[in-house]
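Why does residue order matter? Because the sequence determines the fold. Keep that principle in mind as you read this record.
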Amino acid sequence: MAGLAQPEQRWIPWMRRALQLAALAEGLTSPNPLVGAVVLDSDGLLVGEGFHARAGQPHAEPGALKQAGEAARGGTIVVTLEPCCHQGRTPPCTEAILAAGIQRVVVALTDPDPRVAGGGLQRLRDAGLEVISGILEPEAAHQNRAFVHRVRTGRPWGLLKWAMSLDGRTALPNGASQWISGPPARAWVHQLRAQCDAVIVGGGTARADDPLLTSRGRRTPEPLRVVLSRSLDLPAAAQLWQQDVASTLVAHAFSEAVEPQASRLAALQAQGVELQRLDRCEPEFLLSELARRGCNRVLWECGPGLASAALQQGCVQEIAAVIAPKLLGGELARTPLGDLGFTAMDQVLSLNSEPGLSLGQDLLLRAQLSSCAAPN
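Structure:
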């Protein structure tokens, strides 16, 4: 952190610890952000830690202050996100900090929520506390990129995932695709689902693969399973309709063509499946609805047609591709994406990639669309 003044360098290890604490609740806090906090006494010794575990439960700051007790008086709290200053499902964290007698607050990221947006830090300054901000801000912004994106755009952060062969195929010409990737990669996908609020497929995937779309118990409750279907040509029996395993939402739109299929909707409702009518059966309308439901991050596990539409409508910010050392061949074999309409190389989507990661014999590549502005 060359840009930080020398006295502020000392907060970096403590902020890193606060970020580690925040990460413990990944996938569980929506619609709230991930937040971790560390309390130091007046001598700079660790006396309390906390993190926001789930929406509706205490925020990170009160938890860390409670653990610190009287030792917090005259000390410092290091927190990954600006303390809130409004009454929500829990009291304002700024007031808990003031009541504890804290003298210094060290923050990584300003909260983009309009109800806070610098007001928390100003409340603390007005009360005479020393406030230091911007410590490990890029790391904190990356950790809460989904929350920040939803607050700023009104849509969840979209992550598009696929598994493909070395020659870029996601299935054989006859549609067979299980399994391209190996067990370690599939276990990674289960963990990825646990970090998301919803997993989305189209009707084609529901018909062809009969997916379960759960984290296999890595998260409770399981992420919401979503089927986006224009035709409502969905199987009468499917793993997705097993509501005792995980909740499922079928999103559709009204039209003359599908209204006669009301019996299919009734059959889904009879199995406990939730139905959501959209103004248009498009990814952007679906994500607006999921944001209204409090989703910060969603996972697209769909076929090439829906994946292309999600990209074209700005519903994908990040891509994760698992590449297996296999050759499927076949000119008619499926690929991850459909036609995006590009006719020149200066039109194509550019991405900022991360270092590859080995998952057994498979390779994981992750990249963020260059058009996604870094949160600040």
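The chain is about 25% helix and 20% strand.
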